[in-house]
Amino acid sequence: MLSTSAVTSTSVKETPLERTELLRSKPVVVERFVQLLMPILIDVYAASVVTPIRIKTLTGLLKAISFLDADAIKQVFMVCRMQPLPFET
Known about the structure:
Elements: H1 4-11, H2 16-25, H3 27-47, H4 51-65, H5 70-79
Helix pairs in contact: 3-4, 3-5
């Protein structure tokens, strides 16, 4: 016997095309999401030495910014300024 959660999760599956269309139709929400997520992913990348973790964070960054237009990417990078390295001061 299937549980209610199993039935709803299998009947509500979206195709990648539907998810892509949804993300493209909400640019403000995606931009805000990327603004919040980018500093975290950059910190995780910088703090990790394990190659698979670094690859996953870069993949996440690339997937996130792929839904932004050029102006939104500029805005995200302006908000997410990198701190200078200690030897650069």
